[in-house]
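$ run holo --ligand "magnesium ion" --emit tokens
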Amino acid sequence: SYKCAIFDLDGVLVDTAKYHYLAWKELAGKLGFEFTIEHNEMLKGVSRMTSLDILLEVGNMKDAFSEEEKVKMATEKNNQYVEYISNIDESEILEGALSLLQELKQKGIKIALGSASKNAQIILKNVGLESYFDVIVDGNSVSKAKPDPEVFTLGAKTLGVPYEECVVFEDSQAGLEAAKIVGMLAVGVGQKKDLTNADVVYSTLKDFNIEKYF
Ligand code: B16
Ligand code: MG
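-- output --
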């Protein structure tokens, strides 16, 4: 059976995608184009600067800015996002997440965070989930973005658990691909049609059968 559970944050444990969306939409508005909720799907699990590149491509402004200007825009977006998440609380925790974390803890399973976000710590703290994690790996601790598996392997290594004994919970194709590359069980959280890289898919964590895997 598995010894370690690694969780993605945004889209798996908490519903922060809507705040990312609002902040990106505002930036697009300032640049003079529409950024829809469908466009926003492309930013799931993707790093901040890559997200900006995708957004600029949507607005046909791919080569319109210098690196310095892009860093400024990304910072502006992030300031807006940080303002949104500064007020969030436990009501933003997604269905089934809290009870799964509690059950894993009771069973003595190691728990890691594997998120691309540089804001992961503050989000966990505000929703009150910080204490469940034995290790937190986020956008500040790794340099390579998913589908590079670094964000998951660093957690496993820190906890001393072989990769094959880890289960990864992810809502993005890139994250699921990353998990599989290193032989971790890739559990998709969301819709089966979107998560073709997963070994198994559950629509929410509430449906996950803990006894089957841990
Ligand atoms: P930040 P995850 C990801 O979090 C988000 O899904 C993605 O939309 C975001 O661009 C990325 O974090 C970086 O976030 O700008 O806060 O550093 O799904 O990997 O937990
Ligand atoms: Mg995610």
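-- notes --
The chain is about 40% helix and 10% strand.
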